[in-house]
Amino acid sequence: MKKLILACVLLLTSQICLALAPYLQGTKLPEADLPTQLALLEKKLDAEGFKVIGRHAPKGLAGRATLVVTDRAMLETIRAIGGSAVIASGIRVAVQTDGTVSYMNPDYWYRAYLRGQFKAARPAVRSVQARLEKALGEGRPFGGDVPEGDLANYRYLIGMERFDAPNSELSSHASFEDALKAVQDGLSKGTGNTSRVYELVMPEQKIAVFGVAMNDPGDGEGWWVNKIGADHMAGLPYEVFIVGNKVYALYGRYRIALAWPALGMGQFMGIMNAPEAIRTTLTRVAGGPEKGN
């Protein structure tokens, strides 16, 4: 009996120890304007083999920006996995004019985005993690805690969406090429007051991912991020991704909760309109049916 109790205690303790946070604090930079801060980060990341593919300075979130980079080995791993793994292509680093730096925790985000394929990607994930720490500093984790074993099947509450929720699908087209053109055209036109942050296409696998800025002052990123915590800037931008002939964006009750896992229910209720507003905007970008049609 004593051995059983001890085993249970050790199991519970290990589960607590293996909880992961979505973000890591980097070494603070000198205070400067955002272009200067982004240029400094770009130089540090380039030295560790990362390639910059996008910059994101959300409307309504003054003094904050995100730099999006890719890693060659990670992209090769994603190509080999295929399908929805393409959403994991962008590596996000955030900075503020006061010099505060933070970045996505690869161990957290890749477990959530790659799910059952995380084990196959582990060598590339470890390499990304080590080189981000070298470039940006190995700071404290923050943003909430999720047991690592829960991330592959994460949801905020019972009854809420997971990664593969049906309402993450935005539109369906005749082919991958048509789906790609629809999203590219939607972003080029600024549909729904959006703009392209980055674009990455893997034509042989018929997969693609876009980082999308949602700039509308009424229902864009600014209003809901300010309500729940702008320190989580490394959770942006929002992704639209294509697999085959279908276009997807992870539904807000999953995607926002994954990026803000410590969000209180009261805070979540304060942005209860955000998930549908995001879906409506991105459906328009994806060339999907208008609401009510």
Outline = globular
Oligomer: single chain
Radius of gyration: 19 Å
Straight-line N-to-C gap: 62 Å
Computed structural class: alpha+beta
CATH architecture: 2-Layer Sandwich
The helix content is: 25-40%
Q: The CATH topology, please?
A: TATA-Binding Protein
In DSSP terms (H or I, runs of 4 or more residues), the helix count works out at 10
Order of helices and strands: HEEHEEHEEHHEEEHEEHEEHHH
Would you count the extended β strands for me?
Answer: 13
Roughly what is the average pLDDT, rounded to an integer?
Answer: 93
Strand order of the largest sheet: 3-4-5-6-2-7
In CATH, the homologous superfamily goes by the name: TT1751-like domain
Residue stretches low in confidence (pLDDT < 50, at least 5 long) are: 1-16
Content of β-strand: 15-25%
Number of domains: 1
The CATH class assignment is Alpha Beta
Main beta-sheet strand count, sense and barrel state? 6 strands, antiparallel
